[in-house]
Design a protein that fits this description.
This protein has 6 helices and no strands. The chain is an all-alpha fold. α2 runs antiparallel to α3, α2 packs antiparallel against α5 and α3 packs antiparallel against α6.
Length: 164
Protein backbone atom coordinates (compact mmCIF):
# COMPACT_ATOMS: atom_id res chain seq x y z
CA UNK A 1 0.00 0.00 0.00
CA UNK A 2 2.74 2.56 0.74
CA UNK A 3 4.14 1.96 -2.76
CA UNK A 4 0.77 2.91 -4.27
CA UNK A 5 0.63 6.03 -2.16
CA UNK A 6 4.09 7.03 -3.37
CA UNK A 7 3.18 6.28 -6.95
CA UNK A 8 0.00 8.31 -6.68
CA UNK A 9 1.89 11.22 -5.10
CA UNK A 10 4.52 11.20 -7.80
CA UNK A 11 1.88 11.32 -10.55
CA UNK A 12 0.33 14.33 -8.83
CA UNK A 13 3.72 16.00 -8.71
CA UNK A 14 4.22 15.26 -12.41
CA UNK A 15 0.77 16.65 -13.21
CA UNK A 16 1.59 19.83 -11.30
CA UNK A 17 4.73 20.28 -13.43
CA UNK A 18 2.99 19.43 -16.70
CA UNK A 19 2.67 22.53 -18.90
CA UNK A 20 -0.78 24.03 -18.66
CA UNK A 21 -1.97 26.68 -21.06
CA UNK A 22 -2.38 30.18 -19.62
CA UNK A 23 -6.15 30.29 -19.97
CA UNK A 24 -6.58 26.88 -18.31
CA UNK A 25 -4.40 28.03 -15.40
CA UNK A 26 -6.39 31.24 -14.97
CA UNK A 27 -9.68 29.33 -15.17
CA UNK A 28 -8.43 26.96 -12.45
CA UNK A 29 -7.70 29.99 -10.24
CA UNK A 30 -11.19 31.34 -10.95
CA UNK A 31 -12.80 28.05 -9.92
CA UNK A 32 -10.78 27.92 -6.70
CA UNK A 33 -11.81 31.43 -5.68
CA UNK A 34 -15.44 30.81 -6.63
CA UNK A 35 -15.42 27.76 -4.35
CA UNK A 36 -13.89 29.79 -1.51
CA UNK A 37 -16.61 32.44 -1.85
CA UNK A 38 -19.28 29.71 -1.73
CA UNK A 39 -17.69 28.30 1.43
CA UNK A 40 -17.65 31.80 2.93
CA UNK A 41 -21.37 32.22 2.26
CA UNK A 42 -22.09 28.95 4.09
CA UNK A 43 -19.73 29.62 7.01
CA UNK A 44 -21.41 30.29 10.35
CA UNK A 45 -18.62 31.07 12.79
CA UNK A 46 -16.31 34.07 12.68
CA UNK A 47 -13.08 32.05 12.84
CA UNK A 48 -14.05 30.10 9.69
CA UNK A 49 -15.11 33.31 7.92
CA UNK A 50 -11.79 34.94 8.79
CA UNK A 51 -9.83 31.93 7.52
CA UNK A 52 -11.77 31.87 4.24
CA UNK A 53 -11.54 35.63 3.73
CA UNK A 54 -7.78 35.44 4.27
CA UNK A 55 -7.49 32.65 1.67
CA UNK A 56 -9.71 34.54 -0.78
CA UNK A 57 -7.65 37.71 -0.45
CA UNK A 58 -4.35 35.87 -0.87
CA UNK A 59 -5.53 33.95 -3.94
CA UNK A 60 -6.89 37.13 -5.52
CA UNK A 61 -3.73 39.13 -4.83
CA UNK A 62 -1.62 36.46 -6.49
CA UNK A 63 -4.05 36.06 -9.39
CA UNK A 64 -4.36 39.78 -10.13
CA UNK A 65 -0.60 40.17 -10.01
CA UNK A 66 -0.17 37.31 -12.49
CA UNK A 67 -2.69 38.81 -14.87
CA UNK A 68 -1.27 42.32 -14.61
CA UNK A 69 2.40 41.33 -14.90
CA UNK A 70 2.16 38.60 -17.52
CA UNK A 71 -1.24 37.83 -19.06
CA UNK A 72 -2.65 41.31 -19.75
CA UNK A 73 0.54 42.68 -21.35
CA UNK A 74 0.65 39.62 -23.64
CA UNK A 75 -3.06 39.99 -24.42
CA UNK A 76 -2.60 43.71 -25.17
CA UNK A 77 0.10 42.89 -27.70
CA UNK A 78 -1.94 40.13 -29.30
CA UNK A 79 -5.21 42.10 -29.26
CA UNK A 80 -4.34 45.73 -30.07
CA UNK A 81 -7.98 46.52 -30.94
CA UNK A 82 -9.25 45.30 -27.56
CA UNK A 83 -7.73 48.07 -25.46
CA UNK A 84 -11.09 48.90 -23.81
CA UNK A 85 -11.63 45.30 -22.67
CA UNK A 86 -8.19 45.16 -21.05
CA UNK A 87 -8.55 48.66 -19.55
CA UNK A 88 -11.84 47.61 -17.93
CA UNK A 89 -10.23 44.48 -16.51
CA UNK A 90 -7.44 46.58 -15.01
CA UNK A 91 -9.94 48.99 -13.42
CA UNK A 92 -11.90 46.02 -12.05
CA UNK A 93 -8.68 44.77 -10.48
CA UNK A 94 -8.15 48.17 -8.81
CA UNK A 95 -11.63 48.01 -7.26
CA UNK A 96 -11.02 44.47 -6.05
CA UNK A 97 -7.64 45.44 -4.56
CA UNK A 98 -9.28 48.27 -2.64
CA UNK A 99 -11.84 45.90 -1.13
CA UNK A 100 -9.14 43.33 -0.37
CA UNK A 101 -7.23 45.97 1.63
CA UNK A 102 -10.39 46.84 3.58
CA UNK A 103 -11.17 43.18 4.27
CA UNK A 104 -7.62 42.47 5.42
CA UNK A 105 -7.70 45.51 7.70
CA UNK A 106 -10.98 44.42 9.30
CA UNK A 107 -12.40 41.44 11.14
CA UNK A 108 -15.63 39.47 11.26
CA UNK A 109 -18.18 41.24 13.40
CA UNK A 110 -17.03 44.70 12.35
CA UNK A 111 -19.55 46.84 10.52
CA UNK A 112 -19.70 46.06 6.79
CA UNK A 113 -16.90 43.47 6.92
CA UNK A 114 -19.04 40.58 5.65
CA UNK A 115 -20.72 42.89 3.14
CA UNK A 116 -17.28 43.77 1.76
CA UNK A 117 -16.46 40.09 1.23
CA UNK A 118 -19.84 39.58 -0.46
CA UNK A 119 -19.36 42.59 -2.75
CA UNK A 120 -15.84 41.43 -3.59
CA UNK A 121 -17.36 38.09 -4.61
CA UNK A 122 -19.86 39.87 -6.86
CA UNK A 123 -17.09 41.96 -8.46
CA UNK A 124 -15.03 38.86 -9.07
CA UNK A 125 -17.98 36.93 -10.51
CA UNK A 126 -18.61 39.78 -12.98
CA UNK A 127 -14.91 40.05 -13.84
CA UNK A 128 -14.56 36.29 -14.38
CA UNK A 129 -17.65 36.20 -16.60
CA UNK A 130 -16.17 38.90 -18.85
CA UNK A 131 -12.83 37.11 -19.04
CA UNK A 132 -14.41 33.74 -19.82
CA UNK A 133 -16.97 35.06 -22.33
CA UNK A 134 -15.05 37.87 -24.02
CA UNK A 135 -11.33 38.05 -23.33
CA UNK A 136 -10.31 34.39 -23.26
CA UNK A 137 -12.07 33.42 -26.54
CA UNK A 138 -10.41 36.38 -28.29
CA UNK A 139 -6.99 35.51 -26.86
CA UNK A 140 -7.41 31.86 -27.97
CA UNK A 141 -7.84 33.05 -31.57
CA UNK A 142 -4.47 34.85 -31.54
CA UNK A 143 -1.05 33.41 -32.23
CA UNK A 144 0.00 33.71 -28.58
CA UNK A 145 1.89 30.68 -27.32
CA UNK A 146 -0.51 29.88 -24.50
CA UNK A 147 1.58 26.93 -23.27
CA UNK A 148 4.70 29.10 -22.85
CA UNK A 149 2.59 31.85 -21.27
CA UNK A 150 1.07 29.26 -18.94
CA UNK A 151 4.52 28.13 -17.88
CA UNK A 152 5.48 31.74 -17.13
CA UNK A 153 2.31 32.16 -15.07
CA UNK A 154 2.89 28.89 -13.20
CA UNK A 155 6.48 29.79 -12.33
CA UNK A 156 5.56 33.30 -11.20
CA UNK A 157 2.62 31.98 -9.19
CA UNK A 158 4.96 29.60 -7.38
CA UNK A 159 7.29 32.52 -6.56
CA UNK A 160 4.42 34.64 -5.25
CA UNK A 161 3.00 31.79 -3.16
CA UNK A 162 6.39 31.47 -1.47
CA UNK A 163 6.69 35.19 -0.71
CA UNK A 164 3.16 36.24 0.30
Amino acid sequence: MPAKARKKGSSKAKAARRPQDAIALLRTDHSLVEDLFEQFEKARDDKRKQTLATKICLELKIHTQLEEEIFYPAARQALPKEEDLLDEATVEHASAKDLIEQIEAGNPGEEYWEAKVTVLGEYIKHHVKEEHNEMFPKVRKTKLDLKALGEQLRARKEELQNTM
